[in-house]
What does this fold into?
Amino acid sequence: MEKTIKVDGMTCGHCAETVTKTIQNLGGIRQVNVDLERKEVAVAFDESLTPLDKIEAAIGSAGFEVVAS
Ligand SMILES: [Cu+2]
It folds into this structure.
């Protein structure tokens, strides 16, 4: 499935890279796209391997705040 997650706290390319790598380290992730201006992270993933709440938890653990998904 594909999901666009609103994430607060991403301010630069380094943040975007951290979020991208954090999500890619989970299983079943097909694609991650960070839009810094819109503060959105678009993720294509297999929810039977990694459910959305796991992705959101990983974003939180990396130091960013999920505001909506
Ligand atoms: Cu940054």
